[in-house]
Amino acid sequence: MTVVEQTPVRAAPAAAPSAPAPEPDLPPDRPRRIGGFSRSGVLSLTGAAASGLCVTILLYGELAPFSGALGFALTAYLLFLAIYAVLTGFEEDGQAVRDRVMTVVLWTAATLLFSALVLVVGFTAWRGREALPHGNFFTQDMQAAGPLDPLTNGGIAHAMLGTLIMTAIALAITIPLGLACAVYLNQIPGRFSRFVRTIVEAMTALPSIVAGLMVYAVWILGLGMQKSGLAAGFAISVMMLPIVIRASDVVLRLVPGTLTEAAEALGAPRWRTVWHVVLPTARSGLATAVILGTARGIGETSPVLLTAGFTAALNTDPTSGPMVSLPLAVFNFVKSPQPTMIARGFGAAAVLMALVLVLFVIARVIGGRGPGHQTKRQARRTARASRQDVARFDELHAPGLSLFEAESPAEASATADPTASGEND
To answer: Which of 17, 115, 401, 424 is the 20 to 30 Å CA partner of 96?
Structure first.
């Protein structure tokens, strides 16, 4: 047998670990500026605005047969956005460019809306400046004043009082129905509640003239009633009701579920939980919802035009006779060709806007407090009630009085010596 001698195979030496490649010099990370203005940003805005304006002037004046102020402004703005995006892209990445462009678009939209609001309010106040300084404008009606009379005669007292009466009637109908419906939608979910919520959302977009026609057909034509402030209040309540229901429903959804669970865990029934826990927690939001609905209904003209009639005299009875409101007075005043009547109309519109502004300010103040937030007076009242409860609980849980302390001295002595009475006998 031939023995083959095997030569051991040597393993290849392991490759020495290669030295790490030198990393390229990278610029240090810099945090991105989120808000505020920078020098480059201001220069980019200014340069983009100037470039867009110059290019638009060239297009409309020399290069293309374009015309029109609106087209000029729109073309200049679009070119401004495009040039601003290009200038920003030289220094920032794509995400930052989109952020800067959208910021400019949002600021532009906000500026346009605020400018429109200032224009409307300023124009109305300026046109009504002739009637507003006169005191009789707020204390007299138009029964003894004609279209040719000066502004020192006549006023809008009948329209102001009519607006307050109609709004009070609408609130008396809207507040209980709206809050009850919102509580039902929030506390009793189901198929019927979803149907009711759909109807409420559809009624939000209901044209005001349809509400006036409905009340006119049912109350005046169907039942034979006359035009009055009561019928106008019914029509205004139809417009206010969906606003109050939707806003109240949203507010009630924000009440923490742990509060209702805690109340039910203590054995409180559903109605007591709603009355003592849910509604007090959402009190500020519910007040805001009511005020927003009031601001919507107080400026309606179409329902009042069909249901209230028109009168130049002061009428304090909403059940008989026509009654006029501020929107209806504005509508009738501005139709006159006489300058004094037009001035009265714009003055009445300024008063109406001031009234709506006051309502929105009240809604903002009340709605600024979150659920459970109390004013200083409410906090003092709550602290005082808490101290009284603590004192009452201490009396209930105090150790019982001894028999001798509970009885009168004569009864205590008789109890201690039962033979005393017998000996006396």
So the answer is: 115
